[in-house]
Amino acid sequence: MNKTWIVRGLIVAALIAVAFALYKLLTPSGLPEGIVGGNGRLEATEIDVASKSAGRIRDIAVDEGQTVKAGDVIAHMDVDVLAAQKTEAEAQLAEAQNAVLVSQTQVAQREAEKAAAEAVVRQRLAELNASRKRLGRSDTLAREGATSAQERDDDSAQVEGASAAVEAARAQVASAQVAVTNARNQVIGSRSRVEATRATIQRIEADLSDATLRSPRDGRVQYRLAQPGEVVAGGGRVVSLVDLTDVTMSFFLPATAAGRLGIGSEARIVLDAIPDTPIPAKISFVADVAQFTPKTVETQSEREKMMFRVKARIDPALLRRYMSLVKTGLPGMAYVKVDPGAQWPAALELKGPPQTKGQ
To answer: Is the pTM of this model over 0.70?
Structure first.
């Protein structure tokens, strides 16, 4: 039993020694204290330019590999149906605007009718007042015997008739007021239809604008995912872009190094294509959870260690200056200061503009 444990211990010790040797072999040499590095590849943000609504692609204005600016036209969707809908909505708008004018005319007419009814009320009130005065005189004369009772009764009937005429005239005023209110409501309804139709036109115009697919930012066309004449669903991808102003390199560091990093820490990227020109960068991401490093980054034995993924981001202003030289997928090394006081070695000091081999 003891011999078995001894053999197992020797095997474990041998594996640790091999792993340490491989780690030292794969670790960049010549780095001063406070600077660490890891290998990776350039990555850029990918953007899909897609159709907002289902439809047929009329044409595509870009080719794969073409550089585009923000706002450049990428493709056009067929808009025949939208154009017809806009024409229909514009006709409905004209009809609704005409309905407003008609309703306003009706309001004026109903207000005139109300004014006439109010004038009739005043006339009937005047007649009622005269009838009452005449009845008062007849009543006095009848008590004195100066006139007949019949005349007094006739004057009394006139008062009753004038009073009824006043009530009828007031009812006409109320009816006219209802007609005015209804006419004004028709104006409000017609104006609401005008606004609703205008909103419909605005929506159609927005859809027409969205039918012209534009680049959301500067970049390069990666793939054409559809062809003119194809029908795509809502959200269907037409072109895939890469944003060459948002380029990073992901690499892996052990906890002892990643724990000393901060967002914004100074970094350098050295690409295999231009090994003599370090590119300035800053740390933009440090994973908060450790993981096994992928096979493409470390050896099988090294993957047994838990590592933290780190991203170094190249300055967008620098990328814009040399956008024609930027290519995603290029392999290289990323170096970062885990000690702010460390000095970059001569090989990582910044030089002139980057030049690719053969230029």
So the answer is: no
